[in-house]
Specification:
438 residues, 22 helices, extended
Length: 438
């Protein structure tokens, strides 16, 4: 838009065109009003969803089965949103029982029901107290790694608790699972999920990750070694009185030995790549090891199943007995390595992604008085960040930092502009053979 057109006030009074500038602005901010636009849109969506529900109810009538047989106890489960509570109630029998004084002359019976109530409150109570303990202005998960990791831990806890609610069905369908494996799944995998989430968010926030990954991968590799030794030599196989060497040479034990060795080597590669290699080379080595390990395990499983089905089944049973370490740790190691070495966004793009279009930078920016954004579009800062412009705002910015001064999130927009300009200049220099150096 021509500056002269703005000076003449051609667009004054038009919807979305700011008539006042600066922090003391009293006219409305550019945007779409809630009424009637948002209200009409929400009503249309509600009517469409309701129509879909009516259509499905009319087209697919549920089948009514035979009458219930009072002599047969049916397999009943609670509603899906209560499965986690039922699963936690099932593991409550592992806790001690007894009676404790209540302080008013009576006693409290500590039994499975008591522990079930306590465990059910663990993932629910934080949802109620979070608004009171988290009083900061930051709401983005990427800027609150501890809170986000705790939230992911809670989701994983609810998922695996719900899974354990159907433990009898799982064991009936896959007999090589044992109940202890499913119980430990409520404890170990959620911790691994929370830790992997924290590692990924730290990396996203451009924090140093080397020692974080070294310690994490070292601990995972150590636990894998202990689990392998336990599964093969110190665990249930050691109860039959046969020494590990004789057991290893037996044909029925070769599938287990192969899979344990494969898991151990893979975790060793992850640990070595993290400690001794640069990120780019480490990613290549881990990618090759992951592909080889996956297809090697699939081929070995097919081979052992064809020549020694009983041994393969027993090997699978032994691995799943300790699955929370032998299976979960390699998966955790791969995810944590990827999240800890992934290339995050540009530093300023990471910060600018916090913009929620409050419009304060738009009101104080002197360039908006002579730019197309003054017609009511998104502000100059947001347009430049989203690349929704023709390249002009990138060079018309005065780098006066007036926008940074009023930004409620302390975003330094001028730093981002200077970085983007340097990138463009470097690209032109490389493309034109140094012509722009003079």
């Amino acid at each position: 838009m021509e500056p002269q057109v703005v000076k003449q006030g051609v667009f004054e009074g038009k919807p979305g065109f700011p008539r006042e500038y600066g922090p003391e602005r009293t006219d409305y901010q550019p945007g779409v009003p809630f009424w009637p636009h948002e209200v009409y849109r929400d009503l249309v969506i509600i009517f469409i969803l309701t129509a879909i529900i009516f259509f499905l109810a009319a087209a697919y009538t549920p089948i009514v089965g035979p009458s219930a047989n009072p002599a047969i106890q049916p397999y009943s489960v609670p509603d899906w949103y209560l499965l986690f509570s039922w699963g936690l109630l099932k593991i409550a029998d592992i806790f001690p029982t007894g009676k404790i004084p209540d302080g008013i002359g009576g006693t409290i019976t500590v039994d499975a029901a008591f522990w079930g109530d306590i465990l059910t409150a663990v993932p629910v109570i934080p949802l109620f107290i979070l608004p009171f303990i988290d009083r900061g202005r930051e709401t983005r998960p990427a800027k609150a790694p501890v809170r986000t990791a705790g939230g992911m831990y809670g989701l994983a806890l609810i998922f695996f608790s719900s899974l354990y609610a159907a433990n009898d069905r799982i064991i009936a369908s896959w007999p090589f699972f044992v109940d202890d494996t499913l119980k430990w799944a409520i404890l170990i995998p959620p911790i691994l999920v929370g830790l992997a989430t924290y590692i990924g968010i730290r990396r996203l926030g451009f924090r140093d990750m080397y020692w974080w990954l070294v310690v994490t991968m070292g601990a995972a590799f150590t636990l894998t070694v202990v689990s392998v030794l336990w599964s093969f030599g110190l665990g249930p196989w050691g109860a039959d009185g046969i020494d590990p060497v004789t057991r290893l040479l037996g044909g029925w034990s070769s599938p287990l030995a192969f899979f344990l060795l494969l898991i151990l080597v893979y975790m060793g590669v992850l640990f070595f790549a993290t400690v001794a290699l640069r990120e780019k080379k480490a990613k290549e080595v881990v990618a090759v090891a992951t592909v080889i390990g996956f297809f090697g395990a699939a081929a070995a499983m097919k081979y052992f199943a064809s020549v020694n089905y009983a041994g393969s089944y027993y090997a699978l049973q032994q691995i799943t007995f300790n699955a929370n370490f032998l299976v979960a740790l390699p998966v955790f190691g791969l995810i944590a390595f990827y999240l800890g070495t992934r290339t995050p966004y540009s530093t300023y793009e990471y910060l600018l992604n916090e913009c929620y279009q409050c419009g304060k930078c738009h009101t104080v920016c002197p360039v908006t008085k002579v730019e197309d954004d003054a017609l009511g579009g998104l502000n100059l800062v947001y347009n430049t960040f989203k690349k929704q412009h023709d390249g002009v705002p990138l060079w018309t910015c005065l780098a006066c930092d007036a926008c940074s001064a009023v930004c409620p999130l302390d975003i330094k927009y001028s730093d981002y502009i200077l970085e983007e300009r340097s990138k463009v200049s470097a690209q032109r220099t490389a493309a034109d053979g140094g012509r722009y150096l003079h």
